[in-house]
Amino acid sequence: MAKKHTELFRNSIPMIASENLLSPLARELMVTDLHNRYAEGLPGERYYQGNEFVDLIELKVQELAKKLFRANYADVRPVSGTNANMGVLFALTKPGDMITVPGVAAGAHISSAKFGAVGLRGLQPIEYPFDVEEMNLDIDGTIKVIKEVRPKLALFGQSVYLFPTPLKEFRDAFEEVGSHVWYDAAHVAGLIAGGKFQDPLREGVEVMTMSTHKTLPGPQHGMIVANPRDEKTERKLIYGVFPGVLSNHHLNAMAALGVALAEHIQFGERYAEQIVRNSKALGQALYERGFKVLAEKKGFTESHTLVVDVREHGGGKFAAEALEEAYIIVNKNLLPWDDVNTALDPSGLRLGTQELTRIGMKENDMQDVAEFMKRVVIDKEDPKKVGEDVKAFKEDFQAIHYCFKEGTRMYDYEELVDL
């Protein structure tokens, strides 16, 4: 089954906005003996022996993270973005506290919802108002919420992230109420590090969390970078992660993250720029073919993500499933006007260009991608027939780019064992 899964993605156009490909060198770190070991605690303060080289690796990965994000503090132990989020919640809040958050239907991650990590911590989330025309937080309304709620922690960050959050406009309100300010950069960390989105740590944010496998193309892992307001806050962040929300921190993934960070320092600006160029090109190509791509008046996006309203073409569930039959992998997604209870059959699709960019696609290739999607979703052509054309198209995009071993084919899997 693992072999069949690999073959599926070797043939497919992958556009899940929360996925990416690990570089060949980083992948090598994933299969070292680090996979087999534990390293509870901090470098030099471990509870187990055998961590001499683990300590050196962790300190180096921290150094690379601080350099890439120009941060004073980095924790590379979280094993996922949500785990990093839980560490911040554990560190900076206590049950019963008020926290301000984006709404799930407006693109927020489920960890910031009452039914996610925020609720698990026993917090009271208050949502910011959302401006559908701008596809962003309503500035005046958000400032009002912050001033009225006076949250212990103000969270920003989304899973549908088209445009930078207007943090500069909110900064006076943060400072007035004294909130800790936290930015979940899971989706846009690579764009931020590449200088092509916004710079939260220079715009009033104290703590930034992320997963490390989206626009930052590393292993499936998590990370926290910050400019803590004081030493006490820094210590809370350290202990919020361990012993707060994890034990061992997946040492092989941490080492692979170090490679990904080093690669992004060298290639990240070029990679981030091409991601955004591809997103804009795909948005325009879809729009010209009759798709209702949100935020058309604003150029569709400034990130890796596009959002498409497909209600008139059968809805998000139908479109996503039909496209999958044609080897086009996307996800159905709530749009701002959807009820959260319609998540399994929402109005829209979410598309990401970070993986297409990683395998060498450029603006002209987005025309082909859009045409394939039109044939399936609008023209209602047989998806299996379109899929044969998709497979032929994908043959030219089998190598990985923006890394140290650029040009290595990513889907040579003959060594896999049949299970």
What does it look like?
The structure is a single chain. This protein has 419 residues and is α/β, with parallel strands linked by helices. The chain folds into two domains: 2-21 and 268-394, Aspartate Aminotransferase, domain 1; 24-263, Type I PLP-dependent aspartate aminotransferase-like (Major domain) (Aspartate Aminotransferase, domain 2). It has helices at residues 2-11, 24-30, 52-69, 81-92, 117-120, 139-149, 167-177, 189-193, 231-241, 251-288, 315-325, 354-358, 363-377, 383-394; strands spanning 13-14, 41-42, 45-46, 73-75, 98-101, 124-127, 130-131, 136-137, 153-156, 180-184, 207-213, 217-226, 292-293, 305-309, 328-329, 331-333, 348-352. The strands form five sheets. Strands 4-12-11-10-9-5-6 form a seven-stranded mixed beta sheet, with helices on both faces. It has a four-stranded antiparallel beta sheet with strand order 13-14-17-16. Strand 10, helix 8 (189-193) and strand 11 (207-213) form a beta-alpha-beta unit. Helix 2 runs antiparallel to helix 10, helix 3 (52-69) packs parallel to helix 10 and helix 6 packs parallel to helix 7 (167-177). The mean pLDDT is 94.
